[in-house]
Structure formats: C-alpha cells, structure tokens
C-alpha cells in the first residue's frame, strides 16, 4: 500500500494504472475509519483493479462553531486498517495541498443542500461537494463508494456527478450499525457512556416509524410526531430535525408515497448524531 | 469531421482516441465563429492529435434581459469553417442535453467573478464556469484554448481549473482584430454602420493608455479618466466601466505596477462591446 501526500504523485500513480487499463475505485473519507468505512473499502477492493482511499478532514465542510479542530484523527490506526483491507493507495494530503493560497472555487448543488442537515449547517454541503469534485478530478475513479448513513450527502454527490458530467458511477453502501442499532460514525467516540446508551434511540425510532407505515400510516406529520415523542420519552437528546422527504429530490412530503427518506438529527450534549431509513411506500 | 450531438457519443469517440494514446485539444465556443475562433482552432489543431470544438449558446451565462434569444447562430457557416480548419469533432449539443430536467449544480469562482463585467452581469461567470466545468468533464482535454478578448473569463477559468484540479493546461490566445483595431466578436454583427465606424475607439483608447503609461503615468485614476474622455469625445457609445486591475488577481489598482490589465465595456445602442490590454509596468 502506498501512502501519497501530493496530488502530483497521486496523478502519476493513477495515470500509470490507467495506461495499463486498470479500473479505479475510490472511497473518500475524513479518516477515523470504522466498520462503515471498512465495508466501503471492501466493496471498492472487490470491484476494482486499483482501490484508492482518501483521508482528509475537510475544513470547508465545517462551520465556524463546529468540531473541525476536535474531529478525531488517528493516522496510524487508519493506515493499518486500510492495509488490512488491501487498499492500494491512501491519499493523505495536507490542507495546503488541497486548498492552496488564493483558493476561491466552489461547487453548489442548489436546493438539495438547503433542507435537512443543510438547514442547520450552512455551507456544509458546498464544502462537501467542492472537495468531492476536486477528488474526482484528482483520482478520476470509475466508481465512487459512499455510505447511506450520510443520505443527503449521497443524493447531493449523485446529482453533482450527473449535472457536471463526471464519468463516475456512484455506489451507495448500506449503513453499518452496532449490535444495538446505533449507526457507525466517527463522532460516536465523542459520546459519554450515558449518551452512548441512549444513542440507539435514533434507529429504534426509525424502525418504529417503519412499522407504523407498514400498518398503513401515511401522514408525514403523524410519523414525525411519533418519532419525536419516542426520542423525547427515552433520552436527554435534543432533536434538531425529523423529516420525511422524497428520497431522490429531498422534497418534504406531506403524504408518504414512493421512495421515502426519513431522516433525523439529535444532539447528545455537544455531539450531533444523524440517522435515516429509506422506505418504499 | 464528426458532428456529435450527444454526450454519450462524444465520450465514446474521446475514449477511443485516449485508448490510442491521442492528445486532446479543446476549443469551447458559442458558435458564430470568426477569425478569433479560427486562430484558437488552428493552435488546437496544430498542437493536438484530436481537435474538438464545442458550439453551444449557453443559456446559463445570459441574464434575463440579455441577448440569449438573439445571439447569432449560424450552424452551416460554423461547420464549414471548422471543417476548413481540420477540426476532428464538433460537439453541438441541445440545451436539454447539457441541462436536463432537475439540473441544479453550479460552479462559483468567488471574488474573481464580482468585478469588471461580473459587476454588471450577475450570474454570468457562474454560467460560464459551470458550462466549462461540464465540458472539461465530457471532453477531458489535455489543453484548453481560450481567447484573451474575454480576459476576465480567462482568469476565472484558469483559477477554476487550478482550484478544482482538472488535469488540463490552458492556453490563452491573443485577441484577433479587424484592420481598424476592433476586436473580433460575434456581437460585432449587431452594430449599425455608424456604430461599426465608432467601435474601434475601444482599442484606440487602450493604445493611448499604453502610450501614457510608457511615458511614465502610473495613477489608475488618471489613465481611466483619459480613456473616458477619449471614448466620450469620439463616439455616442455609453461607457459601462473602465478599470485597471491586477492581471492575475483582478484586484483594482490605484497605482499601476506589475502585470496590469486595462479593460473596458462600452454600449453602442443595444450592443455591448468589451476590450482589454495587458501591460507589464
């Protein structure tokens, strides 16, 4: 496994691989790798000749009051984990390598970035889209692997790739969960023991919603209220949002129909957790 | 010469060329080709194995009150002109091919788009950057050819390519002029005879500015005032702006120093003409 710190060096390796007709798979991450990332790497490894993983804590996707400085970084553990998954290249650039002086270009994926998490994290998805656009140009992958846990991010990146015509397929990999249902996230390690015990409530509430829908409930308001009551009854977590939206367009739904995404964000102290499920109604 | 209307078909041709190790040069245009475009095509033809020209009047770079509907279109003449220059592929997509339904992604090149023409054409350079980004992803050229007449556009596209890491070189080709100095432009054909006679004043004023600078004048204010007086004294044209800026950063200058861009825009009736010169001070 090669650990590459510069764009120039990475481009050389990619070019050589392409000249030999190799297919390239790519998993962009912010490091602090967990089992969710492992699944992405495995799929990438299995389906491509060259498996590239980037580790870059992207400052442009953190708000001024968010956890950029304290976001977990664990280079050695990440590297050994990627090695174990037979990744070919880790791209591990510095912030200056990605955002040199006089940097000023951004990609904006319009209304898709305004709702759900975007409403509470202005500029977040602009930062995400921009860094992924850059990485697509650097890595030029045939296939990009993303995790369903970041549902809005998945929709935005797919739309961006379609709109701006990158020649890259996107594969969305299901959320990996702890035994008690908590979605894997690098931020879970921020949780106190008490918070960790309460955190599975996100997924429990989503499963309950699914059950209600399977029993015939169709009003988004009713479903959201039910989730709210459930989360509030069981935890100290402060709900940021609960929404039922169209899974493709992210348009808020009044009546659940078609491919539905139910997503929520809950604060546990200083830690913000998100989760979601997709349901075909 | 192949005339290609779909992205899919173009990608296939490009891929085949790349597999054979061919280099790709690209000239993006809005058609209504003139001698300025011819020079871009010649350089592109000479320096690359595959010469690709796009003809697309990009609605996203026109304001609601601008001349999108009336912008000159002359498919047959453009095609025969490109043929004569031995272009390999003309990409001639429909608006729906470039902007399908639910399109919502845009590229913004920050402060570079705010001054000069950008001040009077809000959204124009966002439209330009977006369509060029898309075309870069579709054509994947090794070299992109742009004309110096659109000086701000050149700076913006270069910055965008650097920032977002497209692996494409940019070559800026000098402005081609009529015998009397008027910069070639598809919009020149809008001019009445009277306006056409007056239009060379733009370049005359820039040359006069250059002379003043060579004689030691360094105050931007003085130079701009001189250009203003000259244009107003000689024509019925209404000056939109005259500016002296840093040629790389487009920052307005008080004192001329380093690589300087002097640019202006003048309305002749309904027709807006622009011109510029670069001077090393």
Secondary-structure map with pairings?
Two copies of one chain form a homodimer.
Chain A: E1 2-4, H1 7-19, E2 24-29, H2 35-47, E3 50-55, H3 75-84, E4 89-91, H4 95-98, E5 106-108, H5 116-120, H6 124-139, E6 143-147, H7 151-164, E7 169-173, H8 193-198, H9 201-214, H10 220-234, E8 238-246, E9 259-268, E10 271-280
Parallel strand pairs in A: 1-4, 2-3, 2-6, 3-4, 6-7
Antiparallel strand pairs in A: 8-9, 9-10
Helix pairs in contact in A: 6-7, 9-10
Would you identify the regions of chain A where 5 or more consecutive residues have pLDDT less than 50? Answer: none
Quaternary form: homodimer
By CATH, the superfamily of the largest domain in chain A comes out as HUPs
Rg over C-alpha atoms of chain A, rounded to the nearest angstrom: 19 Å
CATH topology of the largest domain in chain A: Rossmann fold
């Amino acid at each position: 496994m090669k650990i590459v710190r510069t764009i120039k060096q990475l481009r050389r390796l990619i070019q050589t691989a392409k000249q030999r007709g190799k297919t390239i798979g790519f998993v962009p991450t912010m490091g602090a790798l967990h089992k969710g990332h492992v699944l992405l790497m495995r799929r990438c490894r299995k389906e491509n000749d060259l498996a590239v993983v980037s580790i870059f804590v992207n400052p442009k996707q953190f708000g001024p009051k968010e956890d950029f400085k304290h976001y977990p970084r664990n280079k050695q553990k990440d590297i050994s984990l990627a090695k174990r998954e037979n990744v070919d290249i880790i791209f591990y650039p510095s912030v200056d390598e990605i955002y040199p002086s006089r940097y000023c270009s951004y990609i904006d994926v319009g209304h898709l970035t305004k709702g759900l998490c975007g409403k509470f994290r202005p500029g977040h998805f602009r930062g995400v889209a921009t860094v992924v656009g850059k990485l697509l140009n650097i890595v030029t992958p045939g296939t990009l692997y993303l995790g369903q846990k970041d549902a809005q991010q998945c929709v935005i990146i797919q739309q961006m790739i379609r709109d701006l015509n990158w020649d890259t397929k996107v594969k969305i990999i299901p959320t990996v969960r702890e035994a008690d249902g908590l979605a894997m996230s690098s931020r879970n390690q921020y949780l106190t023991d008490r918070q960790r015990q309460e955190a599975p409530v996100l997924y429990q509430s989503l499963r309950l919603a699914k059950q209600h829908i399977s029993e015939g409930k169709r009003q988004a308001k009713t479903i959201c209220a039910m989730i709210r009551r459930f989360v509030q009854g069981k935890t100290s977590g402060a709900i940021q949002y609960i929404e039922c939206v169209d899974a493709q367009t992210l348009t808020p739904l009044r009546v659940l129909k078609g491919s539905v995404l139910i997503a929520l964000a809950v604060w546990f102290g200083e830690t913000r957790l998100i989760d979601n499920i997709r349901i075909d109604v």
